[in-house]
Amino acid sequence: MKRSPMTTKGAERLRAEVERLKSVERPRIIAAIAEARAHGDLKENAEYHAAREQQGFVEGRIQELEAALSYAEVIDISRLNPNGKVVFGATVELLDESNNGEVSYQIVGDLEADIKQRLIAVNSPLARALIGKSEGDSFEFQAPNGVKSYEILSVRYSS
Fold first, then answer.
1. What is the b/e burial string over 3-22, where b = at least 16 CB atoms within 10 angstroms of the residue's CB?
2. Confidence (pTM)
3. What digits encode the pLDDT tens for the residues 84-126?
4. How far apart are CA 50 and CA 137, in angstroms?
5. Which domains are present in the chain?
6. Could you report how far apart the first and last alpha carbons of the chain are, in Å?
7. SS3 per residue for 16-74
8. Of the candidates 56, 66, 60, 65, the residue with the CA atom closest to the CA atom of residue 29
9. Is residue 109 packed enough to be buried (19+ CB in 10 Å), middle (13-18) or exposed (0-12)?
């Protein structure tokens, strides 16, 4: 498996999720299973089956996160010096040329991407269109709802 880039902040967030799953969720589910077992017949015990299903999900998520963290190449954005170019970890302020709206995105690793927080995956079409460009550049990219035109207003490198 190839190493995938991840920001320092993203790695910290994922480690915190693993810790929460292990120290809070796992014990809660084990207690729920024990309580459901105490109710008797397990074949028709919905609480037991729901708790077991939840346990499987939590254990799977722990494994997924631990594997991702073990293969992650954690990059400290504040130590980069890309001379104004858009690279992994950069926060980019864009002007949407179709409506003059401004929007800001940070390019992060695939697992830490969250569009609601304006974190876009390095392998997303928009991030791929941005990589290598500089402040002041205009570019087009194929969005799901058609071709979009943007101008890069600023590029920052802060974690």
1. eebbbebbbeebeeebeebe
2. 0.76
3. 789 999 999 999 888 889 999 999 998 899 989 999 999 999 9
4. 53
5. 4-75 (1.10.287.180), 77-156 (3.10.50.30)
6. 26
7. HHHHHHHHHHHHHHHHHHHHHHHCCCCCCCHHHHHHHHHHHHHHHHHHHHHHHHHHEEE
8. 56
9. buried
